Amino acid sequence: ETLPFEERCSICRRRAAEGWYRTPDGDREPACRACVTKREVGRRARAGKTEELAKLLGGRVDPWGLGRGVQHAGSLDELIPRGRRRRLVAVVYGDGNNFGAVAQRQRSLAEALQWTRRVASVTRSAAALALAEAATGSADGGPREDPAAQEFLPFQVLALGGEDVGLFAWGPVGLRFAQRFVELTDREFEPAVEAAGKERICFSLGVLVTDEKAPVRRTLAFTEEELLKWAKAAARNAGYRHGGTVAFLVVPSVEQIPGDLEAYRGQMYLRRGSTFDLCLT
Fold this sequence. Notes:
The chain has 281 residues and is α+β, with helices and mostly antiparallel strands. It is built from seven helices and nine strands. α6 links the parallel β6 and β7.
């Protein structure tokens, strides 16, 4: 509890501020002890996940193909290489479909452990490969011709465990990652011939590409609660027969993030026809 006249934390805006923290812009803002602790612990945890993925790529000196000396970004604006005119960041959040149904059919503890560990291993490996390919493919020759143009890794891993994956990335890297991650996991979980055409396990991802200054609380909530649900609904409506799905939205500024995604989708993407309806996405 805080008294009415006490300064609130500029991050959570609920608890009383106990000190100061430096923003990505270099300004000093009031912050509570809980938010500062979460900020520092979270930064170390994200760096640790990136190192874990790098080891999965075979221990190469430069697993991301960006040139030596590239370091972890301290803020989202550092994910974007210098000199880019449109500075957009992608928020990616993914979740598995039908994995729980498989786990319920396990008949022993050994089977359950084998299955959960396989899922976790596939998720990490696919994320590592997809990030490596996305980071290298999105460079457009910039980092190789001018190594100074890429000082930081163009992504930050937010969550990676079991069948969940979440990350921040430079816009092109985030979109390419989503595409490649779904391709890799679809290939790994390709159903047997006798099960072709039936429900299958796959991943659905939501991707929001917007301004680097957009509040993380707003963009992450919209991606996880709206776009991811849209992608999972698309997979469910297709009977999970075609594999993974990606629902992405590109808005230049946070003000253009729709408050009602259902109405926005109906206005922008759905076209009603006399015979059948089309979804232009």
